[in-house]
Amino acid sequence: MKKTKLVTLTAAVLLSGGLLAACSADEKPAESSTPESSVATSSEDVVSSASITDKPEEIVKSLGAEGNWLTAATGDVTIDQDLVVDGEFHDKDDASADIYRKLALHTQDEKFTILDNFTLTVPKIVVNSENFTVFYGTIKGDIEVNANGFSLIGTKVDGNITFTKEEYQTSANLDKDGKGATVTGEVTVAE
């Protein structure tokens, strides 16, 4: 019984370490002298405040107002309804940190090398959360932006992006960090 718990705990720590790496693609790797026990604790904290899934209903819930600061897809996902990104969240779920929210459509190794990219197929994503960033992968569908600070990092959007106000477009970065994000449709302001 103890061996099973150890294997389960080890798998959870490895998964959380992979998630931590997957969520840090926009940050340069830092050398760390942090003891392993501290890394495991911080990784467990990340896992408890993130949603890691390929289930459409969990993605919808995680990106809702009562969801998580970080949603990570583990495979291609198709959602048959508009997906609403709502609520105020903070970086790493720390209330003292900047307002920030992430959707990761990829996996990567500990050296930040992208291993897999995933596709999120949805009629429309409605972004109401400030500083929402999508990392890698592909979004097949349109995006409506109703908040400041929308960003794409290495993401392909196979659809249109409509900003409901000029200020939202001005504050957006559709190729943050120069990672090759693209939009195949039109980028417009609805005003």
UniProtKB/TrEMBL annotation:
<keyword id="KW-0732">Signal</keyword>
<feature type="compositionally biased region" description="Low complexity">
    <location>
        <begin position="31"/>
        <end position="43"/>
    </location>
</feature>
<feature type="region of interest" description="Disordered">
    <location>
        <begin position="27"/>
        <end position="52"/>
    </location>
</feature>
<feature type="signal peptide">
    <location>
        <begin position="1"/>
        <end position="21"/>
    </location>
</feature>
<protein>
    <submittedName>
        <fullName>Lipoprotein</fullName>
    </submittedName>
</protein>
<keyword id="KW-0449">Lipoprotein</keyword>
